[in-house]
Design a protein that fits this description.
Layout: H1 29-52, H2 63-75, H3 77-93, H4 96-128, H5 137-155, H6 162-176, H7 179-189, H8 208-260
């Protein structure tokens, strides 16, 4: 996909100087390397989960889901934090780069958070006897985080002034980020109101091939987030370029009409009778 480039960082003034890099495509050598690395890591995780590792003494075959669920649950914070950083940059410097990064981070974060909830439910049914427990603080706070950023994405779709909408979305993102420390520390702070055990990795309870498989899981999820973030940022930037090129063309068209006194939409001058 290629489009003409017309850089402009100020959401309200398309003619301003660009603060983000010029892009003409969503693909690059970086994304190709990330994509290949991601694909290889997926194959390695599948091999480690189903062939190289052994069933756990406590969880049995369910330990194989650990290699996906735990990396998702921990690394889901990364795109949300990038959304927060981008929101701060926009509020502080009116950085269009920051605004686009915030939008990309929110979308990728919602995907990762949803996958965390789904894999957690699949794991929870045979482990805890239920897919969902509303008394579990970690489950509820994670769901709240996901819904808050779904609301953020909905706000970004509301018609209106782009700059005002970006400001409002940035504030919502920063408020939503308050939930992340609650999720992270929920097991320690509300020990009697959670089905989750304390951090298995932090306590050093995983080792040998299981530790290696978990490491591969972190690499796989990390590469996936980097790949998706990069492409989503570039798609957002190209979409904004297309909008601005269209606006510039429309303005130039109307100025040409005003200069010549010809209504180009009907092909006749006003003195000749107006619209046909």
């Amino acid at each position: 996909m290629t489009v003409p480039t017309n850089p402009s960082p100020d959401l309200a003034t398309p003619s301003a100087t660009a603060s983000a890099p010029l892009l003409t495509s969503t693909s690059s050598r970086l994304t190709q390397v990330l994509g290949i690395g991601w694909a290889i890591s997926v194959v390695l995780v599948v091999c480690a989960a189903f062939w190289w590792s052994e069933p756990d003494a406590t969880q049995g075959e369910l330990v194989r889901l650990f290699y996906l669920h735990v990396p998702l649950a921990i690394l889901e914070y990364v795109p949300f934090l990038l959304c927060g950083i981008g929101s701060v940059l926009f509020l502080w410097k009116r950085s269009e780069w920051g605004d686009l990064m915030a939008h990309a981070g929110a979308e990728v974060g919602v995907v990762m958070c949803a996958l965390t909830l789904v894999t957690g439910a699949v794991w929870g049914r045979p482990t805890w006897g239920t897919y969902w427990d509303w008394s579990d603080v970690r489950l509820v706070t994670t769901l709240i985080l996901c819904l808050l950023f779904v609301g953020y994405l909905a706000l970004r779709r509301v018609p209106g002034d782009p700059t005002t909408r970006a400001k409002q979305a940035a504030i919502v993102a920063l408020v939503a980020l308050i939930d992340i420390p609650l999720i992270n520390r929920s097991v320690e702070w509300w020990e009697n109101r959670t089905l989750h055990q304390k951090g298995t990795i932090a306590q050093g309870k995983i080792e040998d091939i299981n530790a290696f498989a978990t490491l591969l899981g972190f690499i796989m999820v990390g590469l996936g987030i980097a790949f998706l973030m990069t492409h989503r940022f570039r798609i957002a930037w190209l979409e904004r370029q297309v909008d601005r090129v269209g606006l510039d063309d429309a303005i130039a068209h109307r100025r040409a009409e005003a200069a010549t006194g010809v209504d180009a939409s009907v092909g006749r001058t006003p003195e000749e009778g107006g619209q046909q």
